[in-house]
Amino acid sequence: MMEKIKYIVGIDEVGRGPIAGPVAVSAFLLYAKEVEKLIARFREETGLPIRDSKRLTKKQRQRWFDYLKKAKVDGACDFVVSLVSNEMIDRFGIVPSIRKALNNSLERITKDKNINQVLVYLDGGLIAEEKYLHQETLIKGDELIPVISLASIVAKVSRDKVMGEYAKNYKQYGFENNVGYGTRAHYEAIKKYGLCPIHRKTFCKGSN
User: Fold this and answer.
1) Going by fewer Cβ within 10 Å, which terminus of the chain is more open, N or C?
2) What backbone phi and psi angles, to 5 degrees, belong to 175?
3) Which pLDDT does position 99 carry in this prediction?
4) Residues 95, 175, 140, CA angle at the centre, nearest 5°?
5) What does the buried/exposed string (b/e) look like for 120-152 if buried means 16 or more CB atoms within 10 Å of the residue's CB?
6) Whole-model pTM above 0.85?
7) Chain segment 112-147, per-residue pLDDT in tens
């Protein structure tokens, strides 16, 4: 199988648990024959570890993201992020919403490629469509597989940026700090001000 593989894609999601904002799924692509060389180069040039975004500081994640944007422009890698809104999450549920974002990201990252030449690594319980014949789902994949770690970083920084923008419009909820997660202060704000348009109503029952 590996003789046919030209592209390695890592998939990870961010935002499954928050009570506000979208869910994000990133697809991160490297050329198979250059994976080890590029991973080594990324580590050397940034001086940063490649790991699950939750195990990096906010500053480290941003440094990675800025570096990866330049690497993408240089053609060393490619990545996309797909978001599904809180309205869609309320309408269809979190699992179908993650699946929608995942499928969208994979379609975008492989749109000009032969998908039979793509090997997809997915974190946790994520599964790609059956047409992606070469795929593997790994528990803690965001720690074990560098290309999934990079997808995790891109998804996290991208979603946090969106929540930072929402924070400007809905200042009372502290989205710039809690990025939509149900902290004590966040729940207290809901009790005081009620729900705002980006809250996931199905996640907030009984909290307002």
Assistant:
1) N
2) -60, -25
3) 98
4) 40
5) bbbbbebebeeebebbeeeeebbbebbbbbbbb
6) yes
7) 999 999 999 999 999 999 999 999 999 999 999 999
CA distance linking residue 23 with residue 181, whole number of Å:
12
Q: Which helix or strand (DSSP H or E) is residue 11 part of?
A: strand 7-14
With contact defined as beta carbons under 8 Å apart, do 180 and 18 qualify? yes
pLDDT tens digits along 33-84: 999 999 999 999 999 999 999 999 999 999 999 999 999 999 999 999 999 9
Nearest to 194 by CA among 172, 174, 175: 172
Place of tokens 């309408």: 91
The distance of Cα 142 from the centroid of its chain, to the nearest Å, equals 11
Sign of the CA dihedral with 103 first, then 138, 78, and 98 last: positive
How many CB atoms sit inside 10 A of residue 154's CB?
28
Task: Please tell me the total number of residues recorded for the chain in this structure.
Answer: 208
Alpha-carbon gap, residue 61 to 66, rounded angstroms:
9
Cβ 117 vs Cβ 4: under 8 Å: yes
**Interior angle at CA 178, CA 173 and CA 182, nearest 5:** 80
Indicate the burial class of 203 (C-beta count within 10 angstroms; 0-12, 13-18, 19 or more): middle
